[in-house]
Amino acid sequence: MGLVGLQENGNREMGLSGFPLGAKNKYRRMDSELTEDDDSHHLQQQQRSRNTKKYVLACAIFASLNSVLLGYGVMSGAILFIQDDLKITEVQQEVLVGSLSVVSLLGSLAGGRTSDAIGRKWTMGLAAIIFQTGAVIMTLAPTFQILMIGRLLCGIGIGFGVMIAPVYIAEISPTIARGSLTSFPEIFINLGILLGYVSNYAFSGLSVHLNWRIMLAVGILPSVFIGFALFIIPESPRWLVMQNRVEAARAVLLTTIENESEVEERLGEILLAAGIGSAEKYEEKPVWRELLSPSPALRRMLVTGFGIQCFQQITGIDATVYYSPEIFKVAGIAGNSKLLAATVAVGVTKTAFILVAILLIDKLGRKPLLYISTIGMTICLFCLGLTLLLLKHTPFGIGMAILSVCGNVAFFSVGIGPVCWVLTSEIFPLRLRAQAAALGAVGNRVCSGLIAMSFLSMGRAITMAGTFFIFSAVSAVSVAFVYALVPETKGKSLEQIEALFQSEHEQQGSGVELRDVEQLVQKE
Prior knowledge:
The protein has helices spanning 2-8, 23-63, 65-72, 78-86, 90-118, 120-140, 144-172, 178-182, 184-203, 208-217, 220-229, 237-242, 246-256, 260-274, 279-282, 287-292, 296-314, 317-322, 324-331, 336-360, 366-390, 395-414, 416-426, 430-485, 494-500, 504-523. It is mainly alpha-helical.
């Protein structure tokens, strides 16, 4: 390059160094051009990174819209007016409220198989259609029996949605942000609860025959947006790989991963996990048989996933949310308007603190948040029991009841609320993930239904204070469960998380391979 420079500048005056004057300026110009190219490439990379983050965020938001329906289906305020309009009994009230959770397990069970057959994306669409049908029937219901038919359809739709959203988001999210993004369904459940509380308060002044119908009709809106979202969001790349649509999976990964060089690495991990090109994988047992007779590693996954889902509900969160007006009534608050205003405070608290979890889950980790959550809930539930036992119908007791309920939902939202869905979407192998996560969702919905359908009866049998003492004891047990059985999954790819549940020897082998790879990358 130097000789070319001399020839090109041969007629120029020579400097003391033997190089022509002006040559240095030329090389400076070449360096400047290289710098400009580097800057241009860096700006393009930054723009690609921003676009990728926005796209993945949009996918997570759209996929979470079904979760609004679960939160909105709480009916804690609407049930007050349904009682007055349709003259339903206390038992019918428990059945109406609790049936949503019980029936949703049918949707969750069917959702695993359905999402493996038609894809994660279209399963979300099916969930929205079923819910819309049920919501319309409930809005127009002239009797309790018709209302129940609509409620059952809503439950099935919610079961599909609540099972598939975390799985889909976990499968499209980059490792570094997977925890935060997979928590989005829990945010939208809380937004649904808050929307329900606000609409209950807003429409409570209308006639008894009309107000609860409008409250239920508003719940149709989120599922309408889901229909538009299906034309924007991509299919899960991991599901596409299971269908042998590798090029389509690569195209999706290029839109959801910032670094192009990482796409092939991630695709290779997915192919390996799915068993593409490995004859051994195709000789394995069917999914349902593998789940019924699991290996030791899979058994640990199932115990962790199923257990954390059950603990999320048997600590009484749905009783606190569904029946907050009844709890505050026992504490001493009188009048529907004041009761509904207090429930709005619960909804705002629950929604606000889920944002704390979103900020911390990929920084602090899953397990520390679970400790904070379960210990805090244990204390708040115990305080609520004491308040309802000793301080009810006093100004201080009313304040303590509201503070304890808000504290309970705040600690729930910070940890076990979102983290349980994150964990069950992360820990299972690719070919089992949808149906294993569906089993976890079934456990969650069954426990939710049992609590919702028995809370008022338990309150009559052992007092409401005694019921919350039991919830507090169960919450204390959940602390021990987290300590003994829940691993930390922060910062690991879905494929790497499988290694956490393998035997100690296999974990050590995986660790050596990972260190070798890291050393090779550093050398290069």
